[in-house]
Amino acid sequence: MFEFSLQANEGAARSAVFETPHGVVLTPTFMPVGTQGTVKSLIMEEVDALGAQVVLANTYHLYLRPGHDLVAQLGGLHDFMRWQGPILTDSGGYQVFSLAKIRDVHDDGVDFQSHIDGSKHRFTPELVMEIQRTLGADVIMAFDECPPGGANRATARAANVRTLRWLERCRDRFAALEHEVAVPPQVLFPVLQGNVFEDLRREHARDFMSAGDWSGFGIGGLSVGEAKQDMWPVLELLHEELPEDRPRYLMGVGYPDDLLEAISRGCDLFDCVAPTRNARHGTVWTSEEGQVNLKAARFREDTRPIDPGCDCYACMRYDRAYLRHLVVSAEWLAVRLLSIHNLRFLVRLAEEARRRIAKGSFESWSREWLLRYRNAKNTTENIQ
Length: 384
Description:
384 residues, alpha/beta, five-stranded parallel sheet, 15 helices
């Protein structure tokens, strides 16, 4: 049911076909985030139309509301969301550590209070497997401890040890659930930790390889506050350590330049809330001007599309002047249209990366694209 087939390589960058029970995913690809069973402000037909192949949902949020058992009662996550393509659910671990009002991490799991109503809950590796099995996503993530960016070596090492122990428990419960809960086949990805300490990253990868034969790997603990330049050596190291024939999911990374940098270092799957979050603040990405905020007065009479090279609905139908009007008027249509554009921008960027890798021109193209984008971004920030 699950197969990952490499199609082309250029250096560490690679294009592949990832087959799942709910459809084929061509990688590299960007995955829109549907935290609570929805990509914010969009219907799933719009998500499909912008070229998304797989979407994410969040275990923590769906567990708290409306509850995983209710989702299963209503037909499972695919029917609940009205999305029949592949779905990936994260473990909820990051949300427990970042959103819970009060939390207590211990070897058995994490005790936490809901950010919604303060109610008390406990996540264990076993329960996280049961929740994700009940939700019925295609790819599910192991429960891990994600230390914050800037964590010291001792903290990072302790998180590695605990994450490995939790992974073994996730593995065992996942295997047992395959015979207990009747949902379509799933695969379990472990989540690699180690912060920016290269020896801890290497050690963790090797420990994980010894703990099981995994269908893919999540790379966690990056884009959580560390310096960007510290991320790239970690990805280069993991490219050497991880098996070539399994997908690599770089968790929480999705700004345009970061996407290309990570693709060039062997990553395949990406997600980030930035496209829709930026849209809610009037910020969009462009190929020629970098990141811009449409609230700026200079767009008041600008009749150009957001990005002349973009084929999204917002760019094909509306100009910057009208979109700026919607943004400064706090109209919800602005959020919808800018979300469509930002998501399509990243999906299209990954599509072009796939084409370039197949042609053997990815390195030169990405280098030129990044130079132009970053120069434009710096210039635009000075203007704004």
